[in-house]
Amino acid sequence: MFERAKAIAQAGCLEKAIGSGMVHHLIECTLSEGLVLGLLKQGVKKYLAIFGHGSTDFGEVLRVYEKAGVIQTFNFRNEIAMAHAATALRWQYGEIPALVTSIGPGAMQALAGSLASCSNGVGLFHIYGDETTHGEGYNMQQVPKPEQGLFGQITALFGESYVLHTPHSLRDALRRGGIRVNHPWKAGPFYLLFPINTQPELIKPLNLNGLPEQPNFPLTSVADKSQLKKAVNLISNASKIVIKAGGGSCGFAELVQNFAENCGIPVVLSPGSTGVLPDQHSLNMHVGGSKGSISGNFAMANAELLVVIGSRAVCQSDCSGIGYEKVKDVINLNGDLNDVSHYNRTIILPGDIGATLDELLLILKKTPDIQKEDKQDWLDQCVGMKKEWADFKKERFNSLPIMDDVWGRPVITQPAAIKIVADFARNINAVKFFDAGDVQANGFQIVEDDSPFETFTESGASYMGFAPSALAASALSDHPKYGICFCGDGSFMMNPQILIDAVELGVNGMIVIFDNRRMGAITGLQEAQYGIGFKTGDAVEVDYVCMAEAVKGVRAFYGGECTSELKEALKKAYKYQGLSVIHIPVYFGDDPLGGMGAYGSWNVGNWCESVQEKYHAQDL
Q1: In the predicted model, what is the mean pLDDT of the chain?
Q2: In terms of domains, do 131 and 255 share one?
Q3: Whose CA, among 241, 275, 492, 570, lies 20 to 30 Å from 107?
């Protein structure tokens, strides 16, 4: 095995090793080694691992192949944090990783963490140890029920999975896995269940040429040109149009901008699509939805034609289905048939978004007077609301510290603090990661991105603890970027494992903890709905500076109680070569300057009856 691994390293890749004769295409090896070789053909060279008794054989293969210089393995201490780091490595850097856990609780934790990659369409491999296939009795840490393949059933509910029940099942497993992990518009994690006893079993022989390569899917576009012409005709004849650019539009930002400019259509963003249009662009109406903006929600509520680009119509994105009160027709661009047909009265344009936009732009160029005077009236109204939103933000960003009942002293507001850190990130060209909760919700209202992927906000699963863990990806990538994590005190405590992982792996980045001593998003929701918060605050004050510096190799700073002190702390933290942490108390209370507000509807709590009544009364 080691000689084979050395030959692959010397050749540069498996295919060259086979082509040069250094490795024969027919070999005898264990299923564990076969999996490493098969994943190598699909571009997987990095493994994130927490080993246990359910993965010892596979771990030995990884050791040998790392020693030869073919792959890299990074050890973690918490499976959820590891799942988040693996998700960020593919999402941010485009590198396909595989994470490895043992059987039982560890696999269950990694599975829970995979909700982030499921919800955001991020493809990667999850490899979990599994119970033996001979049924000799309960395997320690398996699901304790006398039924076959239970963990395979559980993972299948999350997406797609495969139990490597016999050695020769490898080829089929990798073919299916490659499609899921590299799907052009519905990618996600692929779960490989690896029974303890099949790992060391021999494959006699394994045909390396027969193992599938990473699939390369061609672009698809709408073959029925009449549908495209119908869409252009609707755009030509409508005066009040809005584009909703979802997360799926991020890879096509230039085309979306060209399309919006050619047609004169304002664009409303989702939490995950900030930067699809530059922040100051006159057509950028900013985020819309249940936690949107004044301008974004105005455009949604008053438009009569909706053009959806790469959006799943998530509850917070379209106000639980009632965000487009006056829309009469829809044009939807998406590869997924369920998402593209979500609304009634829709011209469905399935396929690659970029290819479809190219086709639309060709037809639009031949269409005279696409931007009519009645469209200009609509644009003027939207621009006026954009100005109102800018004034609203400016007032909050310039707010002085406010007296806080919990802290017992005036502290900086969260909007002001987030703006300062976001501006600092822009100045140093740092990537921003927003964790779930109040910081995230305020964050996507505040950030002023000019291109996609300046900000990563895990709004799909809203997984608390994602952002700090995601910083680890920078230490695993071949092309690392400095990252700043924005998180609340509650989110940070969901998974502070990064304090250790960062030192172990060599992360160079920053965590800013905005501490309002509570789960602010939920307290705010409780107060808005029922007039009082309940069990969402913390009576315990935590010294996060002391906590962070208890880990040797981490530097921590107090962010102060005013803007000048926070700016100074940011400079000091950035100078440190390693993980730095800033702790800043922030205001929570009734003063409207303390938050960014909410502008849409949401089918939650005691709002459900009215939202559902409106939803079922409309035709869309």
Answers
A1: 95
A2: no
A3: 492
Residues 35 and 163 in one domain: yes
Q: Distance (Å, rounded) from C-alpha 393 to C-alpha 605?
A: 28
Contact 342, 321 (CB under 8 A): no
The answer to whether the CB of 32 falls within 8 A of the CB of 200 is: yes
Q: Is the same domain home to 369 and 474?
A: no
| 397, part of any domain | no
Q: Which domain holds residue 96?
A: 2-210
Q: Is residue 596 part of a domain?
A: no
pLDDT at 275: 95
313 — alpha (psi -120 to 50), left (phi > 0) or beta? left
pLDDT above 90 (res 367): no
Give the mean model confidence (pLDDT) for residues 499-514. 97
pTM of this structure: 0.95
Each residue of 35-47: pLDDT tens digit?
999 999 999 999 9
**How is residue 120 written in tokens?**
């955001």
Q: How confident is the model at residue 167 (pLDDT cuts 50, 70, 90)?
A: very high
Number of domains in the chain: 3
∠ CA 366-285-484, rounded to 5°: 120
Token pair listed for 205 = 């022989």
Is residue 87 a contact partner of residue 97, using CB atoms and an 8 Å limit?
A: no
Range 506-534 average pLDDT: 93
Amino acid at residue number 620 = L
DSSP 166-216: SGGGHHHHHHHHHHHHT-TTT--EEEEEEETTTTT-EEEEEEGGGSPPPP-
Nearest-angstrom CA–CA distance, 446 and 430: 16
Q: Are both 242 and 137 inside the same structural domain?
A: no
502 within some domain: yes
- pLDDT of residue 371 exceeding 70, the answer is no
184 lies in the same domain as 254: no
Are the C-beta atoms of residues 153 and 18 closer than 8 Å to each other?
no
Q: Is residue 391 part of a domain?
A: no
- The pLDDT of 283-299, averaged and rounded, is 96
Last residue of a domain, one of 144, 176, 210: 210
Buried b (16+ CB within 10 A) or exposed e, 20-59: eeebebebebbbbbbbbbbbbbbbbbbbbbbbbebbebbb
* Whether 57 contacts 83, CB under 8 Å: no
**What's the burial of 75, exposed, middle or buried (CB within 10 Å: 0-12/13-18/19+)?**
middle
Checking if the pLDDT of 368 tops 80, the result is no
The first and second tokens of residue 318, run together, are 């379209």
* The CA-based dihedral angle spanning residues 416, 418, 424, 425, taken in that order and rounded to the nearest 10 degrees: -160
The β-bridge relationship of strands 579-585 and 509-515 is parallel
CA geometry: angle 390, 395, 399, nearest 5 deg = 145
